Every structure is written in C-alpha cells, then in structure tokens.
C-alpha cells in the first residue's frame, strides 16, 4: 500500500520551493503541475454519468414498484464485507468496474421504495421529488445567500409560507433543516432564548434549572436535544399518557406545579402529533390552555403527524395546532419528499429565529450587497452550508396539487383502517389498540401460544415471536416491518402505511406472510 | 383558492365513520378510497423521470464545463418571483409544464459547477460523487441501522477508517453529519462530556462557567455552537493571531491562565486548519503541547484544510493533527464530494461518542436483533434519519484513488500559486498576504486610486470597489468570487481554487475581468 500518510515520498524536484516554468508549447508548470486547460476528461465523465443513470433507472426506479423483486437481499455484515470491494486504494478503478460496484451497492441495499417496505416512517417512491433531488445534486447549491441560491431560497420561502398557512397561522417564519430531531433542538433553543435572551451570550451556568415537559410517548430526540443543549436529560419531565398514548393534560399541569415548587424554571412544553410507535396525537387545545396559563412556549413535534394537516378529513387530529409557538413537520415521511425534508415553523414574526441564531459572519452575510440582504436567510440556521430540501417537496406539491397530497394522506389512512379490520378478523392477530393514524401495532400469536393463558410465560414467549419472524422475513426478503417492546408491552409489530404504490393486496400479503413465517412457533 | 385549511369541505358521506364496501369487481373501498392496486401511474412517472434526467444531463452536466455559459443569470428577488411560478395550488401541473419549471429552476440557479464559480469553499463537478448522489436519492436510505442501510453503514465505516488513517491515528471513531458547523458542535459537546459526564443528565445549571478557546480567525460556527449548547458566546475566548492569521500559542496559554484566575473552567481548545477567509493553519504541535499541559481537549476544525492531508507535498500544513482529540473535515469542499459531506472524527476508542450521544430508543435500536447490533451506529448521532453522505466520497475515492485525490489538491494549490504570482506582476492588484492554501486574498485598486496616498480616504474608497465589481460581474454572469471586510481590512476579494476543471486561463480571465469591470472606478 502506497498511501501511508506518514511516509514522505520524494516530491518532484524542488521539495516545496515554487518553480514556474514556461515551456515551448506555452504550458505553464507550477510545482510540477501543468496548469493549462482542465485536467478532467469531461467527455468520459459525462459518459459515465449517462451509463450510471441508465443503471439507476433500470435497477432502482423501474424495479421500485415491482412486488416480485425482493425488499432486501440479506447478508450479514461479515458476508457483505466480503462481497463488496470497500477498500479505497492508491489507484482508481476504471469505469466498467465502478459500474459493477454501483450494481453491487444497489443489489445489497434495502429497497426502501418497495411497496412492501414498511419498516420506518418513510417509504415509497415519489417521481417528482426524485427529479427535484436529482436536480439538486446536479446543481449542488448551498442555501445561505440569495447570490448563490436565488431560486432555492425563494422556493423555501414559498413552501414555508404554505406550510404556515396549513398550520393556521396568519404569518410566521421557519427553516428547513436536517431532521425532526434537529427541528426539535431548534425549537428548544428558541423557547429558551425567548425565556431568557441572555443565555445566548452568557450560557446556562448560574441559572436555575430549566425544565421542559413532554409526553412519555415522545420521540427520543427530546432527550438528545436536552442533553446537547446543556439542559440535561433529567430536566425533561415525561408526562403520563392515557391508554392510547396521548398526554394527560391534568398530569402536565401537576408536573409544572411541582417543578415550580422545586425552584426550577419551566419554559417549554413539547406536545407530539403522531408519536413514533403508537401514532398518538396529544390533545393540543387543552395543552395550549395550560401553556397560556403558565406562560410556557408550546412546541408541537408533528414530524410524523403534520402531514394530516393536508387532509380535510383527518386534520382534526391536530385540532389546536395553530396555538403552538413552533411546529416540527417532516414532509419526507408521509408526503414522500425523500430523506431529508424537515421544517421547523415558528409563529413569531419579530425575527426571533434570526435574533436567536445569528452570528453575522461578515464574509458571507455582507451588509453592503447590491440586493435586499433580507433574502440571505442562512444566518437563521445552525448550519453554514445547507441543502435545498424545500425544493423536493415543492416539486411534488406542484405536480400533485394540494388535492393530490390530500388524497395520499387519505388513502394511507384508509389502507391502515383496512388492515385494522383484517387484523380483527384473523385468528392469531391481536391489535394493541385502535390506531388514530397510520401506525398499526399488533401481535402475532402463533398457534402454540393461542391455547395458553396470558400469564408471564405467555408474554415471555410472545416476546420472542416478532424478532424471529423479522429475521425470517428479512432472510427471505419478502417484506420488512418494524417491531419493538414498548413501555411494558412485549415485542409487537408496528406496521406503517405511506406509499400510494401500496394496495390492499399488500396488506393481505403482510398478514399472510407473518402467519406463514410464524405458524410453526 | 380551495385550499383554505380552515374551511371544512363536505366529506364523503359518513363524515368520519368507517365504512367498508365490497363491490362487484372485488374492489375494496374504505372511507371512499379504492384500495385495490397501486394508485400511482408508474409508467407515466418513470417516463417523467427519464425526461427530466435528459434535461438535467443536457442543461446541467454537459454545460458544467463550458466557459461560454454564464455562471449566473442574475435576477433580483422581485424579478425572479415574477419569472418563476412558485405558487402551490390545489390541482397539480402536467408533466410538460413541470419540465418547463425544471428548465426555469436550472436557468436561474447559480452554476456552482462552472469553472468560473469561485464564490465559496466548494465548486466544480465531480462525476463520480454525482453518480453516488443520484444513487442515494434513488435508493433513499436512512443510515441508522444495519437492517435498513447495510451497504451505506459499511461504506461509512470504511471511509471513516481511511480518514482516521490520514489523520495519523491508529484507531478512532467518527460520524458523518450535516456540516462542519455541526461537526464542531459534536466536538464541543463531546469535550464537555469528557470533562464532566454528568452534564448529559444534569445540564450546566449550577456548574462553573465552561470556557473554550479558539483563534480570532475561526469559523463563525464556534459562536453558534457555544450559544446552541448553552455555553454562551461570551465563554468563547478568541485568541489573537499573527499577521498570517495563525493562532499565537503564547496568547492561548495566557488566556487559559486568565480564565482559571476568573474561576471559570477551561475545557476545550479549537484550532483551525484552513481558516475561512485567509486559509491560515494554526500551529498544531505547539497548541497540542499547551492542551497536554493543561489537560484540555484539542479539536481541530479542518473542515476546509483537512483535504491537504491527502497531499504528501502539503500535509505538513497540518503537522501535529494526530495529537488532536477530534477533527472536523469536509470532503465536500476541496475534494468535491457534493453538499454535504462532513465527518467528525474522534481519537477515543472507548465508545465515547456513543456514550455521549446515545438515547437507546427501543423502537429503533432493539437489542434482540438477529445480527451484531454494534453495526447500528445511529445512536451516535444527534439526528434520527441521516443521509448516506460517506458514500459519495467513497465513490470518488474508488474512482480516482488516493493518488488522484492527491493530484487534485496539488493542482488546486499550484493554480493558487500561479494566481499569486500573476497578482504580483499586475498593476492595480495587491495581495493581502502570501497565502498558505487555496484562499488568495487581494485588493483591486482602480486607476483613480493608484495615485492616492493610503490614508483614510483611500481606504474608504477602496472599500467600495469590491462590492461594485461583484455587482457588475454578477449582472454580467461572467465569474463569481467572494469579497469581505475582515478585521480592520476594508473589502477585499477572496479567490478560492478547487476544481480540476479550472485552468490557468481561468485565473488570467479572472484578473482581466476584474480589471475590465473596475478600471473606470
């Protein structure tokens, strides 16, 4: 291996001194490098891109909707390392070899586009967002200043405006960022800044303990955020939920009172609209009342459930969301905008986002530019370079219209409803609870357990069922869905329906397949 | 407009109640939605993707290297809003209209691939990373668990290992994340956790003030990070630099002593390898000595300069980097991996990253999986869903080999050297200082100012030159480079050389063009 970085190779001639040679053919050499003309072979590069695009089209896009394809081609990490040529060497590989590598990468990657991929809160293939994503990659923008990203900044502004409209605010502000977890961090910091702007300069040292409240069913990013922001996970108070996983408002109010008694400083309530496991929606109106009474910032983590706002039939799930101070909403989930497409939306229009986040870098956000620098929105961000994530959602919205997006949400929830009814009909399947949204949580009880009483032994054995079936389905490659233990409940499946490429036949298949793979247990 | 979200439309029939109808043709209806078969027209969608790919190929990829194309087609925000049809409506647009929209988006976007785009610390078109990026978009992975992202997790592991090797560590850990700013936050939080692990649970309240040190030339993300993490911007101590922009080690040691006298708690030194404006490299060996003496975590922000590690000729700029505890390095800058491709690398191998960041979400990181769950690396991240950013860098490395990457770095720096020599030769151009790296900072002094003494009036007038020329070049669309005032120096140009598509002819053009656009001033 020649690439040992500590080994000093004889460098060409002058050992670091600058030379500049003008040869006969007018070639300019500096440090042994010819500087005339570009060095890359653009024609060969372009041909490679074209060939790879054909491969991607054939092997990924065209096969995405084909249920005869496998969802995954399982290999263990050890096997996969053998199969893939991962090592980066001193010399490069020729194009035909790179295309083989691409083929391997596709082959062994999980097909998250597949109609039977139900493993996460995203799935399916949206042709419009895909095109927007290809364009973004080709144009390679960074969205911080209007001079570098004129189109993408205006698109972001338009998309945020529309999302704000659907939340029900008259006006507002917002920013696309890399994930619901990061959106929640933005909100937490913003609420803290509103509570005490001095924290930006002075930090938390010497202040009373800041306390925030969220439901016991919230996303784990709340803990990550509290730890990252220096608040501490112990200062996240988890409010008890009802049987459906919804925060109990009375419990929230009790906890706020208790925190005050302790001398701590409550500053934020995070409600969840669409919890990760159960798909539960917290009662926003009642929580908003409490926040108003106690002067607390209300953040709604609608990363998953926010898309229901587009459905006139289902937006009642988020009744009261217009009373929130901030909202996290990820169109990359149910609206299929592609990983990642996540917005933090803020009701305030006094430029709170900018005041809280700005660092006024003079090399990037010059104030003597020849255009209106209020379009240089990058200083609202914790990032410097930032991707044009709003654009892919915009493209889908342009293509389908609001009504088309609404239809997607309605269809996903109708399919969920269908699955629920099928589960009720079938022997050996047992719902955890009636779902409100697209998370259908259920146990599969194999024949041998159906005759047992629901005692400790039953639950212990049932706990092993979902992991075993999951292993079998992945090794077969027929379908993927998630399972988990959850708050005292042993391992159960969580089925999530999103994609319009999914049909009721896939729902039937799912249940048949689970039964087929688990009936010997 | 039909999309007023507050207006409740008559919903189909049952007003929310669940109905399930089995019609003659075996069509299953739930809530008025037919659930049989997929609803999307895959053929039409695929055709649209194919047509759009052709457009992207022709209008972006093939034109990327063409210097006869404009770098930008400037329009003011107001004009651009008129030209683009940004509004999202109730009904969707047909494919031919969407393709026109794509064409408009391309037309008015800045061509960051263009050989004469020198505006930021990224530029150019890398065909290999572009292919990897197209693949990532088509496969739409989220990199948190092996079951969902087997290939991309192994690729990330391989790339991190290689980067660690080039830093000069025997082993280490790391994570790709959305930007150098975020990498710096990761490092700051990690150093804080190492200093006092209790902060994760208890937060900063009641603790002495944590203090960190960085150079006065550091990236603005240091301030953003300190504010976001609850440390406070006042607790970032900026250490004075020498005339070339390098941190003065004696000043660092003085500041550490002073902080201790104040009763504050120093915990971190951030050195910069390749500052944003001047491209300066802090003296790492001397800074590492000081960190060792005082027991402080040493983080090196090599977001920009890290790529010099691949050049045997230039890696001496980062002499001593192996002594760092953590390093931020963005291959999307000089190595052209595409926005974003950023790694935080950590020397520790006691699983510090995981201990510091884990939240152990049981729905995602189940411990009873059938494979080795140490491959589920997502719990090291502050994000939940995460993009496969390592893959694009891996593809370029596979294609070019280490030697090809080295050649890129060497060529960019040789071209910079060429430009420096040209600037020295030409009347009216004045270097700020001899550069170490690919940032060439200089003033253009128009003829009318060349006869003036360098007094207040001269500087005042010179301050207007760069913004005016920038406006002219953008309106003409011929070239883009940045300018800024900086630490008492009036507005000057910062030229950055990266792409192998750039030639010495482009350097000559740049200087000619500035002179052409500014000689009447």
From TrEMBL, chains A, B:
<dbReference type="InterPro" id="IPR021115">
    <property type="entry name" value="Pyridoxal-P_BS"/>
</dbReference>
<comment type="subunit">
    <text>Homodimer.</text>
</comment>
<protein>
    <submittedName>
        <fullName>Acidic amino acid decarboxylase GADL1</fullName>
    </submittedName>
</protein>
<dbReference type="GO" id="GO:0030170">
    <property type="term" value="F:pyridoxal phosphate binding"/>
</dbReference>
<dbReference type="GO" id="GO:0016831">
    <property type="term" value="F:carboxy-lyase activity"/>
</dbReference>
<dbReference type="InterPro" id="IPR002129">
    <property type="entry name" value="PyrdxlP-dep_de-COase"/>
</dbReference>
<dbReference type="InterPro" id="IPR015424">
    <property type="entry name" value="PyrdxlP-dep_Trfase"/>
</dbReference>
<dbReference type="InterPro" id="IPR015421">
    <property type="entry name" value="PyrdxlP-dep_Trfase_major"/>
</dbReference>
<feature type="modified residue" description="N6-(pyridoxal phosphate)lysine">
    <location>
        <position position="333"/>
    </location>
</feature>
<dbReference type="Pfam" id="PF00282">
    <property type="entry name" value="Pyridoxal_deC"/>
</dbReference>
<keyword id="KW-0663">Pyridoxal phosphate</keyword>
<dbReference type="GO" id="GO:0005737">
    <property type="term" value="C:cytoplasm"/>
</dbReference>
<keyword id="KW-0210">Decarboxylase</keyword>
<keyword id="KW-0456">Lyase</keyword>
<comment type="similarity">
    <text>Belongs to the group II decarboxylase family.</text>
</comment>
<dbReference type="GO" id="GO:0019752">
    <property type="term" value="P:carboxylic acid metabolic process"/>
</dbReference>
């Amino acid at each position: 291996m020649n690439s040992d970085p500590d080994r000093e190779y004889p460098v060409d001639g002058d050992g670091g001194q600058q030379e500049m040679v003008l040869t006969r053919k007018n070639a300019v050499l500096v440090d042994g490098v010819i500087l005339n003309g570009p060095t890359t072979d653009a024609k060969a590069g372009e041909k490679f891109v074209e060939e790879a695009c054909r491969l991607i089209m054939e092997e990924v896009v065209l096969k995405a909707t084909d249920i005869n394809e496998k969802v995954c081609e399982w290999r263990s990490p050890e096997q996969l390392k053998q199969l893939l040529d991962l090592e980066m060497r001193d010399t490069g590989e020729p194009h035909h070899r790179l295309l083989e590598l691409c083929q391997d990468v596709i082959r062994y990657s999980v097909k998250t586009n597949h109609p039977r991929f139900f493993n996460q809160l995203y799935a399916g293939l949206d042709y419009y967002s895909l095109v927007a994503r290809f364009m973004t990659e080709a144009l390679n923008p960074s969205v911080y200043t209007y001079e570098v990203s004129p189109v993408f900044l205006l698109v972001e502004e338009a998309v945020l405006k529309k999302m704000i409209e659907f939340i029900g605010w008259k006006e507002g502000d917002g920013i696309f960022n890399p994930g619901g977890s990061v959106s929640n961090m933005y909100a937490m910091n913003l609420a803290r800044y509103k509570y005490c702007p001095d924290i930006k300069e002075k930090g938390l040292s010497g202040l009373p303990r800041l306390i925030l409240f969220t439901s016991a069913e919230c996303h784990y990013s709340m803990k990550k955020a509290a730890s990252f922001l220096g608040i501490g996970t112990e200062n996240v108070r988890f409010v008890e939920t009802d049987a459906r996983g919804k925060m109990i408002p009375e419990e929230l109010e009790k906890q706020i009172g208790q925190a005050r008694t302790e001398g701590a400083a409550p500053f934020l309530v995070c409600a969840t609209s669409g919890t990760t496991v159960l798909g539960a929606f917290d009662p926003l109106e009642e929580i908003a009342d409490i926040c108003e009474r106690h002067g607390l910032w209300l953040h709604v983590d609608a990363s998953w459930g926010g898309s229901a706002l587009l459905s006139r039939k289902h937006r009642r799930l988020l009744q009261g969301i217009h009373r929130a101070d901030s909202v996290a909403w990820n169109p990359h989930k149910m609206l299929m905008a592609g990983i990642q497409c996540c917005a933090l939306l803020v009701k305030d229009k006094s430029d709170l986002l900018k005041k809280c986040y700005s660092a006024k870098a003079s090399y990037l956000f010059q104030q003597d530019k020849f255009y209106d620098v209020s379009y240089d929105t990058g200083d609202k961000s914790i990032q410097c370079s930032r991707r044009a994530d709003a654009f892919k959602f915009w493209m889908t919205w342009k293509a389908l219209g609001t009504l088309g997006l609404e239809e997607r949400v309605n269809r996903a929830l109708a399919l969920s409803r269908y699955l629920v009814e099928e589960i009720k009909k079938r022997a050996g399947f047992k719902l955890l609870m009636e779902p409100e949204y697209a998370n259908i949580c259920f146990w599969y009880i194999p024949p041998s357990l159906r005759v047992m009483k629901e005692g400790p032994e039953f639950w212990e054995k049932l706990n092993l069922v979902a992991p075993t079936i999951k292993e079998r389905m992945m090794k077969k490659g027929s379908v993927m869905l998630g399972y988990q233990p959850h708050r005292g409940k042993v391992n159960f499946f969580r089925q999530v329906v999103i994609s319009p490429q999914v049909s009721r036949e896939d729902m039937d298949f799912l249940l048949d397949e689970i039964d087929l793979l688990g009936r010997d247990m």
